[in-house]
Design brief:
Strand content: 15-25%
Largest sheet: 5 strands, antiparallel
Helix content: 40-55%
Number of helices: 14
CATH architecture of the largest domain: Sandwich
Shape: globular
Distance between the termini: 15 Å
Radius of gyration: 20 Å
Length: 303
Amino acid sequence: MNTAYNYIQAPFSKINNYMHDERNAEKNMRFEIHTMEWMESQQLSLNSDAEKLNRFEILWIKRGKGILWVDEQNFEIADNNIYCLAPGCVRKYNFESSAEGYYISFAPEFIWLSEGYSNNSSWLERYNEDFKAAAIKVDEDTNHDLDVIVRKMKWEFSNYFNQRLELLKGLLNIFMIYFSRNLKESDRDVIQTREAELVRKFMSLLKKNFINQKMVSDYAGQLCVTPNYLNRTVKKVTGFTASHHIQQQIILEAKRKAIYSTVTMKEIAYGLGFDNLAHFSKFFKNNCGMSFTDFKKQALRPD
């Protein structure tokens, strides 16, 4: 993908229109990787206005200086650091000069729908708790291993070999596991606050009970708070309401079953606790922007 176009600053709708004629455009939008040097040559500057992310963003700076603002946090951009940002946060970069490294961006479902996703192996799992950003220092040994992985990832992204997307998902998962080993113990110990603890308990309950409990009030009662308070608190900590997380957990499971099983839409709907197939169909389309049938055709289409 060597066309000069500003993927970083352009609105999502414009990017989508621009890529309409690209091969498997809808799949490419789930993941992208570029070198910082290539982005600069194409005038794709990250030094733009503050932006609220709807995708995960990983910035591996091999050489560079500047400041990264993420919500109320400030990170100093320095050599051999990886910066991880989650959907829902507002971020702004300010580089002092040219930087060397890699920019990676992907939709949540790109990795979560992967069969090989290691659920508790990397910083990504903490997105489900109370963190929006992390800065990770890369040691010399890890730097070499990551470089091998990311070069292979970029090669696969730039070409259209068989099972390209599945290989990209696997490489991304391995990439995150490797650099997550460099998380300091102090970084792992997320500051304990009353609100953060409430969100952790909610997310834990949600993963276990989303099939039978689909109302915010179901979880609020168990956590001894009001539904409004739970919604406000979860949105404050994660950027999204409790009801949004409930819907996305259901949709994620539906997508997984659509891709990795042979069960019918009716069986999936009933398995997820929907008594009415039409209700499930409408729920899926409202949350995905396409019908279940169209999603399955798109997801199973060869690369």
